[in-house]
Specification:
Blueprint: E1 4-7, E2 25-29, H1 33-46, H2 49-69, H3 75-85, H4 94-102, H5 104-120, H6 140-153, H7 157-175, H8 184-199, H9 201-211
Antiparallel strand pairs: 1-2
């Protein structure tokens, strides 16, 4: 998805010579896929500590959910297996697993509400300036993946999938209205792309830290041609 911006050019006063005036030019394509990748990495690195920790926690929970689904286990089961494989103490996973199991209805209900609200308030294309990388500024996608992980951990995976399916069908029905006919694919791309970026946020953060450039305060002088 590229970046679109609204451009307004209004000339007033006395201008000599030939002039071409554009009152309003909208939806101008401004960027390429490579710049979108750069914007994603920039947004990953620009977040503050608390925001980064929340997105990292949501991403790790989502990745644990994916890993646990391969053996029909819970996210904490998958986390314990990974810790055992890396020779890291895994006993700490038992306490939260026991706490959630004792309150499965409460945790599942809260997670279900957060999941539905999070899906309904996902960012829209025009709220992002037509730049998919800016979904990193929104906590909604991370809340969606974290609440889904909590639903799986509390044994409410199927009800969570039903909620996701119903809200997805509702969203597609709304996007089928005539006023959304030309922006339907953009809405779907932002919603799906934002959730996918929230899932892989932790690997993206590691990649950005290891390979991205540390920008100095003083720009390099321009080389003479």
């Amino acid at each position: 998805m590229g970046e679109y911006r609204s451009v307004s050019n209004d000339l007033s006063g006395h201008v000599e010579g030939s002039v071409v005036q554009a009152q309003s030019v909208r939806d101008v394509f401004m960027s390429s896929p490579s710049s979108t990748v750069n914007n994603v990495i920039r947004e990953v690195r620009s977040l503050r500590v608390v925001a980064t920790l929340y997105r990292t926690l949501a991403s790790l929970a989502a990745l644990a959910t994916l890993a646990g689904s391969q053996s029909w286990g819970t996210p904490l089961d998958a986390t314990a297996a990974v810790c055992d494989a890396l020779a890291i103490p895994s006993g700490w996973t038992q306490s939260p697993a026991r706490w959630i199991a004792e309150r499965s209805e409460l945790v599942g209900g809260v997670a279900q509400i957060l999941l539905m609200v999070g899906l309904l308030v996902l960012p829209r294309p025009r709220q992002l300036g037509w730049d998919l990388g800016q979904t990193m500024e929104w906590r909604g996608p991370s809340t969606v993946v974290l609440s889904f992980a909590l639903s799986v951990q509390s044994g409410n995976m199927w009800s969570a999938l039903v909620s996701v399916g119903l809200l997805a069908a509702l969203g597609l029905w709304v996007l089928s209205w005539p006023r959304h006919r030309y922006s339907r694919s953009d809405h779907v791309m932002v919603a799906v792309g934002g959730i996918l970026l929230a899932v892989i946020y932790a690997p993206l953060l590691v990649f950005a830290w290891l390979f991205a450039r540390d920008v100095g305060s003083t720009p390099y002088p321009r080389a003479d041609s």
